[in-house]
Amino acid sequence: MNKFLVVDFETTGNKPKDGDQIIQIGAVLIEQGEIVSQLSTLVNPGIPIPPFIQQLTKINDAMVQDAPPIDEAIAKMLPLLDGAAFVAHNVHFDLGFLQAALSDAGYLPFTGPILDTVELSRLLLPGQTGYKLSELSSDLDVEHEAPHQADSDAQATADIFLTLIEKLNALPLLVIQRLIDLTKNFSSNISLLIESIEQQRLLRPQLGDDDEQLEMFRQIALQRKDEAGHAVIDVEAIPAFPTFVSELYEQMAEHMTDFELRPAQREMMQQIYDAFSDGRHLLVEAGTGTGKSLAYLTPALYWAAQESDEKVVISTHTIQLQEQLYAKDLPLLAKLLDFPFTAAIFKGRNNYLCLRKFEMSLSDSFDNYDVQLSKGQILTWLTETQTGDVEEINLPSGGQLYWRQVQSDANSCLHNQCPWFSRCFYYSARRKAAEADVVITNHSLLFTDLQAEQRILPPYRYAIIDEAHQFEEVASNHLGLSFNSLQMDALLNELTVDRGSGLLDRITQECVSLPIWKEIGSEVETSLQMTVELKEYAKDLFNQLYNWGRRAGKESPEQGRLVKRYQPGEWRGRKQVTQSITYAQDWIRLLKTSLEKVYVGLFDDVEAAKQQLKSLAVDLAGQIKELEKWNEALQRLLIEPEEGHVYWMELDTRSTRRGVFLRMTPIEIAPQLREQFFKQKESVALTSATLSVNQSFDYTMKRLGLETEAVESIHHGSPFDFEKQTMLCVPNDIPALTRNEESAFIKELTRSLGDLAQVTAGRMMVLFTSYQMLRQVYEPLKQQLSGAGFTVLGHGIDSNSRTKLTKQFIETPNCILLGASSFWEGVDIPGEALSCLAIVRLPFWPPNHPVVEARNEQIKARNGNPFMELSVPQAVIRFKQGFGRLVRTQRDKGIVIVYDKRIVESRYGRFFIRSLPQTPLVNRPMNELLPMIEQWFDEQ
């Protein structure tokens, strides 16, 4: 296969069978790896071009009036297509129009090979964040000057295709041969392309296998291990910390083009160093723009270098910040500092690929499309990755389930008995963390380590907690317990799926021809039958819980789920629920006993066990431990209440799977944090842009269990000029949001947002506290703005991915993004893409949420005021996070509009306003605010 015609059609719509027509053809002919010919022509479709298509393609009816009809245009393309593979980006779209055009012109249909560059890109570029033509062009430095013009799109697709062929040619022959089998059922003929590459390589075996960065290990190609050793530091040569910081700033001024002197950053460096030196804890609120990442990395590295037997652990809440520290900030400091240092990033075990499990899975033959694609992606990725971290790879949706099968986990680990131990990604990350001066981790792993009695992270006495406003919530989740119906389904599916691809099925395939089968065959069959039975009993249990919870549950606007608080053991008197719990637990125990017999039987044949069966036996042992774990979880969550804990269930009523999520958490987490974490560490520095409420740290210290006398608290304001860069607007004529006025509020909110979008040219993010309200606004707002050139994106409607929605928002002109939940923090959109932030409601937690209820009850029991002690401070901190989405740099400008009049009319509203930077506040009717906002933008 050496002739390819890369094609792009612009069309009047996406349904050729319904009469949509081609309006432009772009084609690029590739032979022997070179572009040899091109074709570009407009086409008269014979029907009007819809306005949306005209706007998208910049092609109008007048432009195609004198263009050739499709039969003439397609006749020009046919000689190029003769003997060629048909290549396109989303090939089935273009193929459908090609076949319709050929049929209308009286030609036979195209029967040659087809190649989809989306599918090929997913296989060969598994680390891409997106596979749109524009995204690939940008990331691969391919020129693409006129998107949605057929000639430009075809040229860009051809350049990308040639890059992919080059990438394919560079892969080791063994990888290419494995990919042939994995791609046979792909939606385009990629396996034929790879077979042709294989034939060329067999004729010239020296090509592609001389990459010194790769090695073959057990017939899988891997990146060679990075064996960077620990740096030796001359401690005597390191100056005193103030001198060290002065020298660092001189280096920064010399080498950083965007260097800005930030006094607060320098002060924060000294304050963290002093806290470490004095052995005390520190709270630092650092406003946006302080540069807090460098402010804490610098003293952390200095301390670890000066105290050679100490390391500093830095913990973040988000993976995004974790990656930024490791991939951006630490490399910058490595260039600027006068001494060498080592840093490691360490994540939860399930983030890492288990090579033993992956190797075993390659022999499975019952794979669906997503699993085959995932295996191919991982084979390609293994030639590139040093970490085996799932965050590096963009698996398809079905690949997320496959990852559970091949991820590293403690229960099924062979440790140093594993043939892959020397190449194990998890133990490699763990070794690097043990040798590093600074370890970057996350709050979740920090608390997992606490629960594991500090057996995961290397020993440390000094820590820096960034995004510390999330520390309590993560602690609460990890020091509690959760279990859900989807986890039970996944666990049982790992044992068997339709008697085909589960662990018990693999044991059957491996053992059925061995002598050992006489000993274990009947027990394996018993386990298979019990697994199927348990699936039914588990389904019945969760159906019973679902039906019970749905009758009395209350909707959580934050999550869009029904929520029901309960007390374990309160099922007495509800015979069906009680029976379902008993049956499920009994069958878990029976299945566990049966699996244990299979496990013991697998080792009867010692020689066999040492070979192919040992891995299966260890995986089976892992499943047995999981069953034990979940049986204990059901006992704790449904039968035996623990004092000081709150219990609730969440019901996913919108999904066809009817998920049931059982949860418990300590009502008060502060005592455990104080005793298990803060008292065990010499010094912990906690930082965030949002730690204070009404200029006081009392709330945060109390919630975290920090003793006032043992901690210092410091506030560094933002260096940005908020009085000039932003304006806070509160319309005073918006209806109050009450049950009776909810429809009026939503109607007025929608109208106001539409009017505001006209003034701000979109560039607007709207933050909701309720998914339900977001959905109620979404369609009416789209209708209001239809035909005006605006795009409305809805969180949970257009996509559940915050990353995808944010990227689309930045790239789309005149865009309005409706976000809930996770959009209140961690979204960074600098520049003009975001110029208006709308906050629909003050972000109070729902008062009927079980955790809020339980904590309120506890405060009331000691004669406190739950609203002022808990609800208001929580809402203020979240409000500050939301407000912080707008101004991210000194050049950012925009307005914040709050549609909740309580911020100016209630007695507690002042706490929200006082917690913000000094910002002009305007409280007027909406018809007065709109011209003021327009004038404000004109003056900027």
UniProtKB/TrEMBL annotation:
UniProt domain Helicase ATP-binding: residue ranges = 251-519, 273-482
Q: Which domain of life is it from?
A: Bacteria
The residue stretches assigned to a coiled coil in this entry are 606-640
The residues forming the signal peptide are none
List, alphabetically, the InterPro entries matched. ATP-dep_Helicase_C (IPR006555), DEAD/DEAH_box_helicase_dom (IPR011545), DinG (IPR006310), DinG/Rad3-like (IPR045028), DnaQ (IPR006054), Helic_SF1/SF2_ATP-bd_DinG/Rad3 (IPR014013), Helicase-like_DEXD_c2 (IPR006554), Helicase_ATP-bd (IPR014001)
Q: Which reaction does it catalyse?
A: ATP + H2O = ADP + phosphate + H(+)
Q: What is this protein called?
A: 3'-5' exonuclease DinG
